[in-house]
Design a protein that fits this description.
3-stranded parallel sheet, 4 helices, Rossmann fold, 9 strands, two-stranded antiparallel sheet
């Protein structure tokens, strides 16, 4: 789910309690029926281990998993640090399961970079190439493509890796699927469980080979 919001826990936010409870119920229902619910961690830069009265939904809902976002900083200039946590991602060891590419616009300034594309080149500010090129609403019913950044980009990437594992192992249990997603990820950041990466940075090739 590439969506989310942050609520104040308790009665300080009218209607928040029932909404949080409803999301927990929905995610747990899916979980009981063998569905892996993958959610964007959120783009508020919150330390969800120490967020006090705040709760990120659906990142912290039920038995689902949350995905944080990473991005290179200066890819068009040769950067290969694809597992760098983004400037905006929510994080927390108690919440984040894995990290995945989400894109970022943190590269400073508006220096322009030119990169090859099919049939020519594209020249834009260098930070644009650190974002994710994603499908989007367009001028026609067929839609189009645009540059985007967010944990909403990271969650589908992690979901795709989980789908690869499921395709290779159609009868895999939900618990085993979660474990396989984590075990195929590459340890990043602090060794072991990490606030920004959880069990690691997703790796589709590893998932294909397991």
């Amino acid at each position: 789910m590439s969506l989310g919001t942050v609520f104040a826990r308790g009665g300080g936010n009218t209607g928040a309690g029932p909404l949080v409870a409803a999301m927990n119920k929905a995610v747990n229902y899916a979980n009981r029926h063998g569905v892996l619910v993958v959610s964007a961690a959120g783009n508020d830069g919150l330390d969800l281990d120490h967020s006090g009265s705040l709760i990120a939904v659906p990142a912290e809902s039920g038995a689902g998993i949350a995905v944080s976002a990473t991005a290179p900083i200066g890819w068009a200039l040769g950067a290969t640090n694809f597992d760098t946590p983004t400037s905006y991602t929510n994080y927390g060891t108690s919440v984040i399961n894995v990290s995945a590419p989400g894109g970022d616009s943190a590269y400073p300034g508006n220096q322009r970079c030119t990169m090859p594309v099919s049939g020519g080149t594209v020249t834009v500010p260098c930070w644009v190439f650190d974002l994710v090129l994603s499908t989007s609403r367009g001028a026609t019913a067929a839609g189009g493509y645009s540059w985007a950044g967010g944990t909403s980009m990271a969650a589908p990437a992690a979901s795709a890796v989980a789908a690869i594992i499921k395709q290779k192992n159609p009868n895999i249990s939900l618990g085993a699927l979660k474990t396989a997603l984590q075990n195929s990820a590459v340890d990043a950041g602090k060794q072991g469980a990490d606030p920004f990466h959880g069990k690691g940075f997703v790796n589709a090739l590893n998932a294909c080979q397991r």
